[in-house]
Amino acid sequence: MSTEHEVRYAIGQQEVKGYDTEQLREAFLADKLMQHGKVYWIYSHYERFMVGSAVPTDKPLKLDVLDDQLKASYFTARREVGVINVGGPGSVVVGDITYALDREEALYIGKDNPDVEFRSDDAANPAKYYLNAAPAHHAYPCKKVGKNEANVLHLGSLETSNERDINQLLINTIVETCQLQMGLTRLNPGSVWNTIPAHQHDRRNEVYFYFDLADGQAVCHFMGEPTETRHIFVANEQAVLSPPWSIHCGVGTSNYAFIWGMAGENLDYDDMDKFPPSALR
């Protein structure tokens, strides 16, 4: 079977206070992404957000509907999809249009596109498509966003170990979407802290996908309420589901990159409640 999925139900902050390490990882860590020859999804009940991956090798992979979960005739009947390639060169075919996607290029797929197929140029160096999907009320046009079309924010400093470039790819100043937003942040050599100050998005959820971690390295992802924090150690090409009530920030044992994806009540990138290190417990 070329498509797999699992369901994660929403969990409140009171329940999480009693979770041990294994329970935290089972609830919030996505550790089965980027399986070769497979499309894999987690259907989350936070904003009905879906996080997944597609890694085509010797044959294309189709965006199948997940009949038992979506109850729709095709995947994008009521959903929009964001795609970012973190592997070798490939292409995504939407209907009769082919979008070539090199590494770290993005594609927005709007509602009402029944035929979507993922391809790799070279099976030995396959494309690795990281996928996010959210409910959609309107059919906006598909749009590719190349590396040079991103809005880039240069934040942080080497002195505070968080010098980084935030590449805003699928946000409302670049692509029209219903609620989905995605981007890619890369930390410079010598920097390890992301998303400082830590913050919450009470009006939307967020998912962090960590990649480009060297062998043997890891990221410690912090979550939970500001005064009741928890942590999850994350390996390369794994993701953490961050509920609206949870902070998110992380620190790595080396520099790395991550993709952030959000959906919720609004499209204001700066709509967040910030918590400086001195406020965290």
Give your account of this protein's structure.
- With 281 residues, the chain is mainly beta.
- It has one domain: Jelly Rolls, CATH 2.60.120.
- The protein is built from three helices and 23 strands.
- The strands form four sheets. The chain has a seven-stranded mixed sheet with strand order 1-3-4-11-6-9-12, with no helix packed on it. It has a seven-stranded antiparallel sheet with strand order 2-20-17-22-15-14-13.
- β3 and β4 form a beta hairpin.
- The radius of gyration is 18 Å and the shape is globular.
- The relative contact order is 0.17.
- The model has no long low-confidence stretch (mean pLDDT 96).
- Architecture (CATH level 2) name: Sandwich
Name the average pLDDT. 96
Number of strands: 23
**Could you name the CATH topology?**
Jelly Rolls
Widest sheet: strand ordering = 1-3-4-11-6-9-12
Structure annotation, total helices? 3
Strand content: over 45%
Oligomer: single chain
Radius of gyration: 18 Å
Q: So what's the CATH class? A: Mainly Beta
Q: SS-based structural class?
A: mainly beta
Largest β sheet strand count, sense and barrel closure = 7 strands, mixed
Task: Provide the domain count.
Answer: 1
How much helix, percentage-wise, in residues? under 10%
The ordered string of helix (H) and strand (E) elements is EHHEEEEHEEEEEEEEEEEEEEEEEE
Short characterization:
6% of the residues lie in helices and 45% in strands. With 281 residues, the chain is mainly beta. The longest helix has 8 residues, at 21-28.
